[in-house]
Every structure is written in C-alpha cells, then in structure tokens.
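Lab meeting, item 3. Inverse folding demo.
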C-alpha cells in the first residue's frame, strides 16, 4: 500500500536522514526524475547502502536473459549484415556491399538491443522491484510536486516535515 503526498515547490525536505525504502540511516542520495513534455523534475532521495544495492541488483534469470538476448541479437545482426553483403555484392559492388552489410548489422543489433532490454527488466527480483518503486514523482506543475511512497510510514513522516503551516 502506497501513500501519495503533494508538496509545494520542487525541493522536498526528507525526514531525518532515513532511507526512503527501509527507514534505516541513509548514506547516499539518488536522483529521481520525471519528464512531462519539455519540463523535467528532479529530486534527490535518500537511500541506504543495502537498498541501493537492491536497486542495482540483477536476478539470475535477468542475467541469463540478457546473455541469451545478446547472443541472439549478435547472430541476427550478423545474418542480416551477411545477407545485405551478398545481395549488394551480387551487383558487382563488393566494397559497398561490405560497408552496407556492416551498417545493416549495426542497425539491427541496436534495434534488437532496445527491444530486449525492457524485457530483461521483467525478470527483476521482487526485492529489486520494491526498492525501485520506493519513491516516484507521480505528477508536478510549476508550484507543486506529487510524490508516491511505497513505505506508508515514511510517506507520513515526509508529509509532516513538508507540511506548510
């Protein structure tokens, strides 16, 4: 269960040097970013070392998927490049065939990489997903910022500290 808190302005005050995810003493600040059209809102949220490690962790299934995707993307790119080379070389232009084959291989690899990376994120562990969802900028405008906290207790503390009197 999460808690949504709206504050005035774009610079929130975080309570007592506590980690946003687990309430342990925070050691570092992580930049949380939200883009809306041409406007970008950034805030620095406190996290402890353990939660930072969780945010960066990859599950064994995610690593396995990324390796498999890298191998299959490479093979697909090489096949596409080789096919392009043979098609252009048959026209008597070997040098152009080679250059075009390399270009096609790079483009195919890049496109497949962009497609498979979001899929790999689906294999994250539940702990990593929870640490990544500890805080989010839900909405903002010129004078308010709306944040969502996964840890309700932290969200309540945050709301108290940021309450305008």
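The presenter then showed the designed sequence:
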């Amino acid at each position: 269960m999460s808690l949504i808190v709206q504050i005035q302005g774009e610079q929130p005050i975080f309570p007592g040097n506590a980690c946003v995810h687990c309430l342990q003493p925070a050691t570092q600040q992580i930049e949380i970013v939200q883009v809306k059209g041409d406007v970008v809102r950034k805030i620095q949220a406190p996290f402890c070392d353990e939660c930072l490690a969780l945010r960066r962790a990859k599950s064994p299934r995610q690593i396995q998927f990324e390796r498999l995707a890298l191998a299959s993307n490479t093979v697909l790119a090489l096949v596409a490049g080789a096919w392009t080379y043979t098609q252009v070389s048959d026209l008597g232009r070997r040098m152009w065939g080679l250059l075009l084959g390399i270009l096609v291989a790079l483009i195919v690899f890049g496109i497949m990489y962009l497609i498979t990376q979001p899929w790999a994120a689906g294999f994250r562990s539940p702990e990593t997903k929870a640490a990544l969802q500890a805080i989010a900028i839900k909405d903002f405008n010129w004078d308010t910022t709306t944040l969502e906290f996964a840890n309700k207790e932290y969200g309540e503390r945050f709301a108290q500290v940021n309450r305008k009197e």
